[in-house]
Amino acid sequence: MNSPVAAEGGGEARNFATTRWSLILTSADLGGDDQKSRQALAELCRLYWRPIFSFVCRRGHSAQDAQDLTQDFFVMMLEGNWLSRADPTRGRFRSLLLKSLGNFLNDAAEKKHARKRGGDVQFVSWDDWMAEAPSQLTVSAQALESWPPERLFDLRWAATVVEQALRRLREECEGQGKLRAFEALRSCLGAEREDVSYPTLSQTLGVSETTVKRLVHRLRQRYRNLLRDEVAETVADPAEVDDEIRHLCAVLAANTGEAL
What we know:
The protein contains 12 helices and no strands. The chain is mainly alpha-helical.
């Protein structure tokens, strides 16, 4: 089976200067306190809280303590001078976030972290985060028991990228009146062609096999473009997109025990 993060196709041209991560780095480089960059950072936090929470738990913290620490980590980024320390040469939001999180937890342990959850700032509530659609990723027993925190972080990160792309694709299909087709063909997006039963799908949707093949092809192409868009939001240089996708593919494949 193919990894759900497919690197096929270059996707559409994209203006990387307007991605969330590039916006944050630009503001930090100029030494400004740009509201748009902070909004972009808050949005990235909202999207990528699961990898952070998983990392904190894997470091030995209880679920409740992990919730507190995850909230405090985000508050530290949004309140403090984290933007000024964002190094564009390190490029990827994932890498910098992981390094910052490790330093934060080490510092929290030394100080016997006693700050109340969320501090005194207005931020997305933990209940709101948990109310969002649950992760569809099943973490293997081997990964849960033996993978280091950093690798689990990357696995949850990869899952978030995939799920966000799928969410956007579903919303597009719903807006076009094609939600039924999306639900029926969703499992085909990461499947090998020989694993797709076109006759069955044809019967399910009440259309010809030729039409099904065309729909699957279009959905796969759009899915890949959306995946690239999601990854592009977290890297500073367009040249890094393919390498980041390959990395996420490898992590997901290792979790399922499948070769790419």
